[in-house]
Structure prediction request, 156 residues.
Amino acid sequence: MYAVCLRYARHELEAQDLMQEGFIRVFDKLKDFRMEGSLEGWIRRIMVHTAINQYRRKSFQMERFGLEQVPDQPVPSDAVDRLGTEELLNMVSNLPEGYRMVFNLFAIEGFDHAEIADLLGCGESTSRSQLAKARRMLQSMIHTSSTPVHVGQASH
Prediction:
């Protein structure tokens, strides 16, 4: 569950706080678990909702950084293959909070834009826009970090 919290948090201390708050909610609601389905999945949903609630409490409006001015640059097709999981997760964690939240909910948790809009209290178009900007920002990060693999270097 810590990995789930890390995806939504800015840093490890925030992830630890999320996990602690999430498990407090798990223990408070354990009597409501009906033994139908996966306990792990149930706990995961509580952790995700805990992160969303923290995001709402911070009362940030979706961040805007003028990424409309950033040109879309093609990313070499093997660039993602050369990235390690940790490096990719680090890139996601460096996204602005609104972008990171929507990216995690859509790309990792599998929510659609209507559900994200409902969870975050924004419009579906805002969710789509935030996802598009997150993807552009990630592409830029990948493009910046991708260097040619030289003969003799291991490729992932």
Notes: The first helix runs from residue 2 to 8. The helical segments are 2-8, 12-29, 39-58, 79-82, 85-93, 97-108, 113-120, 124-145.
